[in-house]
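Person: I keep going back and forth on a fold encoding question. Show me how you would write down a chain together with its backbone fold. Please set it down just below, with no commentary around it:
Helper:
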Amino acid sequence: MNVPFLIAKRYFFSRKKRNIISIISNIAMIGVAVGSAALIIVLSVFNGLEDLIREIYSSFDPDLKVTAAEGKSFETDTEFMNRIRRTPGVAVVSEVIEDNALLRYNERQMVVKVKGVSENFFQQNEIPESVVEGSSELIYDDTYHALIGRGVQYQLSIRPNNQFVPLQFLYPRNTKFNPLNPEGAFNSLNITPGGVFAIERQYDDAYVFVPLNFAEELLEYGRRRTALEIKVEQGFRVDQVKRSLQDLLGADFKIQNSDEQHTSLLRAVKVEKLFVFITFAFILFIASLNIFFSLSMLVIDKKKDIAILASMGATANTIRNIFLMEGALVAFIGAAYGLTLGMLICNLQQSFGLVSMGMATSVVEAYPVKMEIEDFIFTGLAIVIITLLVSIRPARRAAAMSVTENL
């Protein structure tokens, strides 16, 4: 029989408790419940945002990306490419040349990222599904076409498939500048705008896809490539294929999975989530101070009960545990209500999208949420630690009370 727990439960659920101690205990319980629910909701929103970032970038980014460890490009040849294609788990290898260039259309111009890609590039991403106007095909009717972002289209007022007004790309040549012929310092190539894609503003406002041969000629890269983008075959783990490629290519190349391609952004989300957890844990601590006050008052109110228990042979540890259990009951019942409420609100948000993002440019209408068991575990641990911190002093005071003075 757990005597401290039975007595603590008796104190907590006593029907005769209608005094200020009861009110403070209920306030403490409500505070813990609200704090726990808020913490679970906010952490779930951060989880949802992290998944949303991965989902957005997965439509654009490859499973694995091979780049030079130093510099922005590297040499390739047939044997080099065949060795990569023969690596177990490699399904598709796309060659990429990417650089900044000046884009002109009519009388307007802007700097864009030109991404020259091989013909199999769209086999490993969802960009064709993101085309909102025209076609994603870069070569048809024996003519080169460009796939432009929606932001680029708006900025330059581009009309897709306009044969009379092509896109003009300008890129600095690797020659000495001649002031008598300034235009000779630039390569200039024209291409027809064939389609418009809309993925995410970061890409829509900057990227233009062109055929690889067009980029080779414009940027004068020859057999150099800025990246190789790789789709991993089903049944193979990305990390396993990454290790195989790293062993094959050596330290001269850097191989990144989808998360590593956006390390800084995902790390920022995790750091923000950590600081939010610390902030809300502090708020929980403030809310739990009511447990300290209610226990302190309960110790004063139950001085005679404590003295009787001590005279009947109850040890100091037993008395101390009674009040520790009392604090735990207040905190844990509040936490149970709070975690249940947080779970319910998150489920409602997932199902009905109660809270909108409030941005017309957002890719989703409502805040994304994703509940993870780790958040519930860490929230529970935080409540346990906070409860012990605020309960231990009143419990020790109760255990140190004199029997003779209170009988």
Summary: Residues 20-58 form the longest helix (39 residues). The chain has a mean pLDDT of 90. Residues 304 and 406 are 5 Å apart (CA to CA). The chain is about 50% helix and 20% strand.
